[in-house]
Amino acid sequence: MSLKFFLKAYVRIAGIAALVMLVCVLLYSGINTVREQFWHERAAQPLMEWLAAVPDPARQYHWMPPLFGLKTGSSDDFQLSAVTAERLGYGQVVAEPSGEGYLFYVATAGGDVLRLRLEQPYRDLSRALALIVRWHLDGVALAQRPDVSAQLSKALHVAISPVQSLAELPEQAVLDRLSESNLALLRVNSNRLSGLIRLSEGDLLTVKMPAPFNPWGWPVIVLLLVVVGSVLALALYLALRFVDGHLRKVESVAIRIARGEMGARVESEDGTLVSRLASAFNGMAEHIQRLVQVQREMIHAVSHELRTPVARIRFGVQMIESASSPEALQKQMSGIDGDIQELDELIDEILTYARLEQGGPVFSLREDSVTDIVRQVVAEQRIIREGIDIDCRIDEASERWSLADVEPRYIHRAVQNLVGNAARYAAGRVRVSCHLDEDNCRIDVEDDGPGIPESDWEKVFTAFARLDDSRTRTSGGYGLGLSIVRRILYWHGGQAFVGRSEGLGGARFSLVWPRRKPPEVVL
User: Fold this and answer.
1) Could you give the CA distance from residue 381 to residue 144 in angstroms, rounded to a whole number?
2) What number of other Cβ atoms are within 10 A of residue 369's Cβ?
3) Per the CATH hierarchy, to which homologous superfamily does domain 120-215 belong?
4) What are the sequence ranges of the domains in the chain?
5) pLDDT band at residue 231 using 50, 70 and 90 as cut-offs
6) Are β-strands 429-436 and 389-394 bridged in parallel, bridged antiparallel, or unpaired?
7) 450 — phi, psi (to 5°)?
8) Which of 87, 332, 443, 491 could form a disulfide with 360 if both were Cys (CB 3.0 to 4.6 A apart)?
């Protein structure tokens, strides 16, 4: 995995995560603002409707105005908005945030507006409910107390129960506070409050309040899960669509290649998930295109190369039938044998070239002496090429680094092709030089022949290519030797070059490849 792709994927995932968090925070804040407003109005509704039903709540509950800002007036007195006044006209309880908690409004039966201020809405509401319960039960006879408690519980939406055992008593600090104000608020599970009141006779009652506002209610959780799931599903869809689009490009190019459009290639940006696939696919397509081109050239060239020796063999056979003397018969037999030898050499060259072009042989590189291989080739060519002075130059520095990772048989073939080719065109001298160091191996083969024009330097490595003038069929060869040399060097991780010999004036061919196989190269 490339670093560029990792960074792009990381940035995108981080962006999606930040987007999800931002959306969740905005939804959480916006929805809970509405939910909290609704909860305040619904929680205060029983108390506000109870007070609205009282003819003069400020006089009956004289302790409420100083504690909770209880006040009765008109809409103009409270400067209510048109929306608030309309809602009050429908009999709703309206809660409005203020600088000191919340203001609660409700319309009375007489058409006035009753206002209540709660600085800490849930705590002050619980305190007000507990005080009203105590105020009504404090002067009720013991026999009537259950009925009144039931009425208060139903009207105020609270649960009233007497404390009947020692186990229900709170700790001493709460009892001390209860003795001072006859009321103590206790916090039970989930931040829910419960009021403990003491009547004048000393009886203790527990008033369980409604549940407080829960910002993590199930509607919020469900909505956030839906939002997160939707965003993740959208991100996954876009990612899969992106990958699918690139895979469809690869599929489309594969179909085009199957139809014969060998030049079709996959276009993909760097750093994407399928960029490596596209690169590998394009490399495969290049290789297939080259193999097809080589196959076409080989079929065309082989048909041309085979035609001449086969024609000569056919002519020789016809001449055998009409031979008039043993000498003439022997001459035709020798000619046929030479043509067969030529066919055998041509077939060997074609098979070697095809094997190298179609992916190369299974190279088993091992440590061997390059200088020994060069000396062996020079010694063999001296025997074959009589009259040609083949000089071998290897200095002491090269002898020090003579051991290299090579496939001896193919390096031998490459050097042999170059030396044999140079001897074929040389006027009388061929020079073979080795230049080896710690990193690279270099072999130069020079001759004193006519040389190769610079415009044809690249052409000489093309399969079945022959140059004009001196390098024609009269010199021998089939145009495969140098192509084989280049492919052998390719599979060794090196290259073959052609130039002009400064010392001898003819052509100079050079083989250069790394002395040690790189760890990442797999042959």
Assistant:
1) 133
2) 16
3) Sensor histidine kinase RisS, periplasmic domain (3.30.450.300)
4) 120-215, 361-523
5) confident
6) parallel
7) -70, -15
8) 491
pTM score:
0.52
Report how far residue 215's alpha carbon sits from residue 231's, in angstroms, rounded to the nearest whole number.
22
Torsion of CA 322, 327, 331, 332, to 10 degrees: 20
Cite the DSSP H helix spans in 170-217.
172-181
Q: In the structure, what pLDDT confidence band is assigned to residue 187 with cuts at 50, 70 and 90?
A: confident
- Strands 507-514, 193-198: pairing kind: unpaired
The torsion region of residue 202 among left (phi > 0), alpha (psi -120 to 50) and beta comes to left
Question: Do the domains at 120-215 and 361-523 have one common CATH topology?
Answer: no
pLDDT at 386: 83
The class that CATH gives domain 361-523 is alpha beta
Q: Which of 507, 480, 393 is nearest to 442 (CA)?
A: 393
- The residue ranges of DSSP E strands in 153-200, in sequence order, are 159-162, 183-187, 193-198
DSSP state of 315: H
CA–centroid distance for 312 within its chain = 65
Q: Report residue 356's pLDDT band, with 50, 70 and 90 as the boundaries.
A: low
Q: Which residues pair with 240 in a beta bridge?
A: none
* Pair 137, 152: CB distance under 8 Å: yes
Q: How far apart are CA 483 and CA 259, in angstroms?
A: 30
Q: Which of 493, 464, 489 is nearest to 477 (CA)?
A: 464
229 exposure class (CB count in 10 Å sphere: 0-12, 13-18, 19+): exposed
- What are the strands of the beta sheet with 495-500, ordered from one edge? 389-394, 429-436, 440-447, 507-514, 495-500
Residue 98, classed as helix, strand or coil, is strand
Q: How many CA atoms lie within 13 A of 252 on its CB side?
A: 9
DSSP, collapsed to helix, strand or coil, labels residue 486 as helix
Contact 263, 279 (CB under 8 A): no
Residue-wise DSSP of 230-290: HHHHHHHHHHHHHHHHHHHHHHHHHHHHHTT-TT------TTSTTHHHHHHHHHHHHHHHH
Q: Phi and psi dihedrals of 146, rounded to 5?
A: -60, -40
Asked whether 489 and 495 are in contact (CB, 8 A), the reply is yes
